[in-house]
Write a structure and sequence with these properties.
It holds the Pfam family VPS18_RING_C. This protein has about 1150 residues and is an alpha+beta fold. The protein has 43 helices and 37 strands. α23 packs antiparallel against α24 and α28 packs across α29.
Length: about 1150
């Protein structure tokens, strides 16, 4: 029987005890399991690569049980660079305990920190002394299994003697070997040497930085440049300064000024760095007799220099020089003068006013003295303003002075520093006010008691290149380096914000020897955006302002490079200059922000970490992942979901995290954001997008239809779901997979959202059908109105009008002319109730009167309804349609048939009139309306027909009544009737006396008409005689032409071509007359003229035969007809007069086209 226990051998446990895991599988693989015991492991990398972080982590990993890769031991950390951070160590301990689940085994962060022993060695002597003392210490503490030296090379490089340095290294490693063999421990030492490629090995190409967040966090690109690198600045010194020493140097706006000293003289040189032009030069010997130069001050333009002179012996007053610099095309001019008004004051600080100064004058500037006095003055080539004392800092030496103005305001700030404090003065000045006197009326001070014998302090500001207002400040004092930011709030009373102290351990310096102390005390420093570059006696260091870690260290070999003097920064360009007494170097800064994101990330300042990591996708992924994890741990699940969606973390793993929560808002947000990313990705697949959309729909519907969900929450989920379904990519996907979506919604029994989905994908037929089955007619009509498929109106309107006649008709009317009226007839014939009939008539009236429909079916239908239900409206309709049978839109015969069947007599009369059925119309009208009959009889245009109709009316009105009065009235109403026409309608025995007056009137009328006819006949006879006489005269009429007669149209000689001459005297060439006359002819005559000319041409081209008389006759006949058309009347006397009322242009459209 096999045991279920997983047993291990003692040999395997022994193997586990020989290594310390690095907590990184890839690194452990390369190190054959981890850090080996009884071996020295050297970590080599550039500053900022993560060596210190790895070592601190190993101090904790060595404490782990052997089963998980540790040794259950302790660690000793020897620090030579002051880089050990206990706060960071505690953070790492918390992380390791969580990763390995060590809390259940009793591990605590404080306990793990107790197992890390720490010793600081700031010199080579102390380092070797501590290594020698390790023998007894390890024997007394056998649990120590790991010793770390951070950093061995850092300490050894401080030794300038190569032989001593080599001997010390050999001695240290001999001690390491002895201690490892006798105590079974491991040594780790760190080096910051640059990696050198062996000559016999080919270079390994660098790989792109595309590693995942699961890789080694301490790995960096070996080919990446260091943040700070030193470059020699080639200054072209004149040949007579080959052996000179640099005593002072200052730079601004690329103007470099340096004081060079030789055995014979002291000279100031002024270089313009961008161009290789001869430097400006001025001798200072005659001004510095008995003095030494204290400091140089240069304004922002690079044209005003102030040199502070300090007496070499007591009893001599301090002094200073002012040098105004200018340039000509040939050379530079440096004018030196002594400022006597400050004769008794040692100038220790100068604040130039960058807002008012220019190349000719400094503007208002401030001087700080060694006795704590602040003066105001102005200097220039020709200006020497009196000094004005502004403030007294009570005998405190002023070490720094700066004038600032808050952007976009008149708030001015003056910052002054002394060895024991910073003083800030501020006030709002008037725009025209130049003096800073009012600023010093009230001030705030940031003071610190001096803790050491450091008798100086430095105040520095950092502003981006070419910016006047700084972002950061730093103050070097007895406690260390204090840093912070400057306020940009116009209304704020605070000026210097923040107070981060970087401890430089000046107190410990008291215990060191003179040489060690000299090299461990900061002489000067400059600020960059994220670092402080510190200058020591023989080296420079760069410290990150955020985590105070050392990122750069450079030792200057005094024997080779000279003695380090100072470090300066060009405020205009941002370039840093480091100089010894022999050489000037520039300190190049390369992407100093590269690791800032990691610092902010470790601090939990995720917004800043995200902003700084945005340019690198891998870094950004690490930030977002850690930020999401932190938010999830804190219970901010929606925030975590938003950040997880931006990471490349496993989709399934994140979903499982959120699915366990009762609140589904985080999972919905996460999936939505991942879906958005997926739709924007070129590598996405339609199937993946479909899966996420279907899942999101399911999640939404669950929340919407949750029984215990409140109405407000349900409404909120519904609104969000509606917005989601309106997204273009969602619409596209759901349209392609409509069956799956419809099936899902149906499973949730959500009829509302099923209808909404059908609307979104334009599948309205199914929705309307379901709504009608459920008798939800109002919803069905609403759905029908939302869609644009007209066929659905024709299909479902008959059903809807049965139940909602008014609303249905209004919906149809809202569609206007889009609907085909003929296809709506099945809907309109549903008139079971009066309400339905009313609204059908309303729609037909809308179609006829508003849409101006000419559809005969619609008009016939409306006419039929009018005839059957609204006879009064029928006559109004007929009158509107008019009495022209060619213009009406209904079928007249059908209308007459309907009206006859329904006995609408007045409409029948109207329609019979349209059909010219006058007799029938009058007979029908006589049956019910005599006046209508008379009106009808008066309508025909034919006089005979009118007379006939009136006779029928007379017969109907008189026959059988013998009413003479009525007959006389008819004679008055119709002028076509005569008394003799009406007499046959009376009886034979009617007395004639009653007609006497009418008969006399008729006889008089006849007599008058006979006389008129006689008169017309006489006039006609006279006109006939006149015409006969004129014709006789015309037979003998002739016209005499002169040889010089011309055509009245072309003004050319008349006799050269065939011509016409008219009795009025006008003469025209035949072709000229034709050209002018043809456009005036009617279409028929013009067509006839063309045909005759073609016939004449055909006759003229016939071959000559023996029977030539017949063609000649035809030719003469055709020619006579042509002449009859062209010369029937004179062009000027007849045709033009007749056409004078015709427009000049008939086809304006053609004219417009031609003009365009």
């Amino acid at each position: 029987m096999q045991s279920s226990l997983k047993l291990k051998t003692a040999a395997s446990l022994l193997e586990l005890n020989n290594v310390i895991t690095t907590d990184n599988k890839l690194l452990d693989k390369h190190l054959h399991g981890g850090i080996q015991l009884q071996k020295v492991t050297e970590l080599v990398g550039k500053p900022g690569a993560g060596k210190t972080q790895l070592c601190m982590k190993l101090c904790l990993l060595v404490q782990l049980p052997a089963i998980v890769g540790g040794l259950a031991g302790q660690a000793l950390y020897i620090d030579t660079r002051q880089c050990f951070d206990p706060h960071r160590l505690k953070e790492l301990a918390n992380k390791i305990i969580g990763d390995y689940n060590l809390a259940v085994h009793g591990f605590r962060p404080d306990q793990m920190l107790q197992n890390v022993r720490y010793v600081e060695c700031l010199s080579a002597g102390r380092l070797i002394a501590n290594i020698i003392a390790l023998k007894e210490y390890l024997q007394a503490n056998p649990m120590i299994k790991l010793v770390i030296v951070d950093s061995l090379s850092f300490t050894i490089r401080m030794l300038t003697n190569v032989i001593q340095r080599t001997a010390l290294l050999v001695e240290i490693h001999e001690h390491f070997q002895f201690l490892m063999s006798s105590n079974n421990i491991s040594f780790i030492e760190m080096s910051q040497n640059k990696q050198i490629q062996p000559k016999f090995l080919s270079a390994i190409p660098s790989k792109p930085n595309n590693s995942s967040t699961g890789g080694n966090p301490f790995e960096t690109d070996d080919e990446e440049e260091e943040i700070f690198s030193k470059l020699k600045l080639p200054l072209r010194l004149p040949s007579n300064f080959a052996d000179a020493h640099i005593e002072h140097l200052i730079v601004c706006k690329n103007w470099l000024l340096c004081v060079l000293a030789t055995q014979e003289k002291l000279t100031l040189l002024r270089f313009f760095l961008p161009r290789a032009i001869p430097p400006g030069e001025v001798a200072l010997d005659k001004y510095t007799s008995g003095y030494k130069i204290g400091k140089l001050f240069l304004d922002r333009t690079g044209h005003h220099v102030i040199i502070s002179l300090v007496p070499k012996a007591t009893g001599v007053s301090a002094d200073f020089l002012y040098i105004h610099c200018s340039e000509t095309p040939k050379a530079q001019q440096l004018k030196v003068r002594r400022i006597e008004k400050f004769k008794d004051h040692e100038i220790t600080a100068v604040a130039f006013n960058t807002y008012y100064g220019d190349e000719t004058t400094t503007g208002t500037i401030l001087f700080g003295t060694s006795r704590g006095l602040i003066f105001e003055t102005e200097l220039g080539a020709s200006i020497d303003m009196p000094r004005k004392q502004l403030y007294d800092l009570c005998q405190s030496r002023i070490t720094g002075l700066e004038i600032l103005r808050v952007p976009n305001s008149n708030r001015w700030i003056v910052v002054a520093s002394t060895p024991d404090g910073i003083h800030a003065f501020q006030d709002v000045l008037r725009p025209e006010e130049r003096s800073l006197h009012s600023i010093f009326s009230s001030y705030g001070a940031f003071a610190e008691k001096q803790k050491t014998d450091l008798n100086y302090s430095l105040l520095r500001f950092f502003a981006p290149p070419n910016s006047k207002y700084p972002k950061q400040w730093a103050w070097l004092s007895g406690a260390g380096l204090r840093t912070g930011e400057l306020s940009i709030d116009i209304g704020s009373t605070a000026t210097l914000l923040g107070d981060t102290l970087i401890k430089l351990d000046f107190e410990k310096g008291k215990l060191l020897s003179f040489d060690e102390r000299r090299t461990s005390v900061v002489k000067s420093f400059v600020l960059t955006e994220y670092h402080a570059v510190l200058l020591y006696a023989d080296h420079i260091k760069a410290i990150c302002l955020l985590n105070q870690e050392l990122v750069y260290h450079e030792v200057f070999d005094e024997s080779r490079l000279g003695k380090l003097q100072n470090i300066e920064r060009d405020a205009f360009t941002g370039t840093i200059y480091v100089y010894t007494d022999r050489i000037v170097f520039t300190l190049r800064i390369t992407r100093e922000e590269r690791n800032i994101w990691r610092i902010y990330l470790d601090r939990g300042q995720y917004e800043l970490a995200t902003a700084h990591a945005a340019s690198n996708a891998d870094n950004l992924q690490m930030v977002l992942t850690q930020r999401a994890n932190a938010a999830f741990r804190e219970g901010a699940f929606e925030v975590a979901a938003n950040y997880y969606a931006e990471t490349e973390e496993s989709f399934e793993a994140i979903c499982l995290k959120f699915m366990a929560l009762n609140d589904k808002r985080p999972i919905v947000n996460y999936v939505k954001k991942r879906l958005t990313r997926l739709t924007m990705s070129e590598d996405s697949t339609p199937e993946a997008i479909k899966s996420l959309i279907i899942w999101l729909i399911d999640l939404y519907l669950i929340q919407i239809n949750l029984p215990e969900q409140s109405e407000a929450r349900r409404h909120e989920w519904q609104a969000e779901y509606d917005e989601f379904m309106r997204e273009p990519y969602v619409l596209s996907c759901t349209s392609q997979h409509r069956n799956a979506v419809q099936q899902l919604i149906t499973q949730h029994a959500d009829s509302h959202n099923l209808a909404q989905f059908a609307i979104s994908i334009c599948d309205f037929e199914q929705v309307i059908g379901q709504q009608l089955k459920a008798s939800r007619y109002a919803e069905a009509l609403q759905t029908l109105a939302k869609q644009t498929d007209l066929s659905l109106y024709y299909k479902y309107a008959p059903k809807l009008i049965e139940h909602l006649p008014k609303a249905t008709v209004e919906a149809l009317m809202a569609m206007g002319s889009k609907l085909d009226l003929e296809k709506l007839v099945p809907t309109l014939i549903i008139m079971d109730t009066a309400d339905q009939r009313k609204h059908v008539i309303r729609y037909l009236e809308f179609a006829v009167y508003k849409l101006n429909s000419s559809n005969e079916i619609i008009h016939n239908f409306l006419l039929h309804l009018y005839a059957q239900y609204e006879p009064k409206l029928l006559m109004k309709y007929l009158e509107i349609q008019g009495r022209d049978d060619t213009l009406v839109h209904y079928d007249i015969h059908y209308a007459l048939k309907v009206c006859t069947e329904l006995d609408v007599k007045d409409a029948c009369v109207f329609l019979q009139c349209l059909l010219c059925m006058w007799t029938t119309a009058v007979d029908l009208a006589l049956q019910f309306d005599m006046q209508l009959a008379k009106e009808t009889a008066s309508k025909p245009q034919d006089t005979t027909m009118r007379r006939k109709l009136w006779l029928r009316i007379a017969y109907h009105d008189i026959k059988g009544t013998n009413d003479v009065k009525r007959a006389l009235n008819l004679l008055k109403e119709c002028d076509l009737l005569r008394i003799e026409d009406l007499l046959p309608f009376f009886s034979d025995f009617e007395k004639i006396d009653n007609f006497k007056e009418a008969i006399c009137d008729a006889l008089k009328d006849y007599n008058q008409r006979i006389q008129e006819l006689q008169r017309e006949m006489a006039e006609t006879r006279e006109q006939s005689l006149n015409v006969t006489k004129e014709l006789r005269t015309l037979r003998t009429h002739n016209v005499r032409l002169q040889a010089n007669e011309v055509c009245d149209i072309c003004d050319m000689t008349l006799l050269v071509k065939p011509f016409f001459i008219f009795i009025c005297g006008h003469k025209y060439h035949s072709d000229c007359l034709e050209k002018q006359l043809v456009p005036m002819l009617s279409k028929d005559r013009s067509r006839l003229l063309s045909m005759l000319k073609q016939q004449l041409e055909a006759v003229m081209t016939q071959p000559t035969t023996s029977k030539a008389a017949e063609p000649e006759k035809d030719r003469l006949d055709i020619k006579a007809e042509i002449e009859n058309i062209l010369a029937s009347d004179c062009l000027y006397c007849s045709h033009m007069i007749e056409t004078i009322d015709q427009p000049f242009v008939d086809d304006w459209d053609q004219v417009n086209v031609e003009w365009e």
